[in-house]
Amino acid sequence: MDTWKVGDVELKSRLILGSGKFRDFGVMREAIRASGAEVVTVAIRRVEAKAPGHVGLLEALEGVRLLPNTAGAKTAEEALRIARLGRALTGERWVKLEVIPDPTYLLPDPVETLKAAEALLAEGFLVLPYIGPDLVLARRLAQLGTATVMPLAAPIGSGWGVRTRALLELFARERATLPPVVVDAGLGLPSHAAEVLELGLDAVLVNTAIAEAKDPVAMAEAFRLGVEAGRRAYLAGPMPPREGASPSSPVEGVPLGKTP
């Protein structure tokens, strides 16, 4: 069976779901089932603050592995506080590390992310850091011992698709030097998820594209199929592109010359 690992945990599904933006918990649970996802992220600050729509969220996510995230953190210090709170609330040492000081484009801070990752690892967390498509930073995080690296495909919630493809191709080329690569943010369609998996990267994380679809459950299933198709295509070994056309039928015995 084709599986992958986060830390020492073996996973079958290469699709991780976010738990935000669903219109209610019932739709969220149905979408999780349709997606086949085994891991779901949860924003700890929203749970802590008992924000509308988040009361009872942890109970609604029973049966899946929780991935607490540090959404809302603008500095390494804030991320540490939220991560510790997440571990206290959930009993889970996994943490999706997000340090985002930029309110306009929601781009992660590489310096504060690296600083927070080092501190969290020292406290025994299993760290899954959200980063820009920066291979140098990814290598630094790998050297520290993060469980994954999670480069963005496009700005969070944009649905633009794989706008950073050229840089993600470098991640695919350097897979042997990195922990599992999970592409996070900006995916809007199942074809975008398939594109990522076709590159040979390990998994994707999707929230807005599913939660804001007209039919989130159907879209969750579509993303599951897109991820599966992309992974199978990668394993099948795609044909190399050519500079020109190549006939799919034999040309032997076909007279050459002008077309009448």
From TrEMBL:
Keyword Transferase: yes
Pathway connected to this protein: Cofactor biosynthesis; thiamine diphosphate biosynthesis
Spans through the membrane: none
Keywords, sorted A to Z: Cytoplasm, Schiff base, Thiamine biosynthesis, Transferase
GO cellular component entries: cytoplasm
Compartment(s) of residence: Cytoplasm
Chain residue ranges for the region called Disordered: 236-260
Catalytic reactions on record: [ThiS sulfur-carrier protein]-C-terminal-Gly-aminoethanethioate + 2-iminoacetate + 1-deoxy-D-xylulose 5-phosphate = [ThiS sulfur-carrier protein]-C-terminal Gly-Gly + 2-[(2R,5Z)-2-carboxy-4-methylthiazol-5(2H)-ylidene]ethyl phosphate + 2 H2O + H(+)
Top enzyme class: transferase
Xref: SUPFAM superfamilies: ThiG-like
Chain sites annotated for binding 1-deoxy-D-xylulose 5-phosphate: G157, A185, G186, N207, T208
Principal localisation: cytoplasm
Family label: Belongs to the ThiG family.
Primary role: Catalyzes the rearrangement of 1-deoxy-D-xylulose 5-phosphate (DXP) to produce the thiazole phosphate moiety of thiamine. Sulfur is provided by the thiocarboxylate moiety of the carrier protein ThiS. In vitro, sulfur can be provided by H(2)S.
Protein's name according to its UniProt entry: Thiazole synthase
